Amino acid sequence: MKMKRMILPAFLLMIGMFFGRSEAQNTLKALVQKCENMDSVTVSVVQRKNETTRKLEQNMVTITFRNNQALEQEIKKAFETDKKDAIQEIEEKEKGVLKNVFYTFSEGNREISYSYDMNKTGKGSLTVIERQKRAPRTERTPDSRPNREE
User: Which among 12, 14, 30, 137 is least buried, having the fewest CB atoms inside 10 angstroms?
Assistant: First the structure.
């Protein structure tokens, strides 16, 4: 009986963690979709597929804009909103002003990275890279190297 009482809360916790992670970057996702439909931005898409299976391994979307203060503020706000769920954060400020941001989120077996760069000429870019998680590297020991005696 005690086991049944413990299983239900554990199951609910796992479901909450799964759905919580998939909602991690909702603000940034919505912003990217909005930008893709704007006339004042340039959108470029690069996709990489596996040579043998032809399955999509990486999808990269870059959105470029010029002199759009409203969009720049919206991007900064979206990054700030979703920051708490990022598994990696890199931020660069110049004189207290946020100039470059890079966040990575984990969603199932995928990693989604968002980067934002604003230069002094007013040109900004928002890049989204979605890819399959890589298998962890294994350490090579001297014994694991192939024998190359000739």
Answer: 137
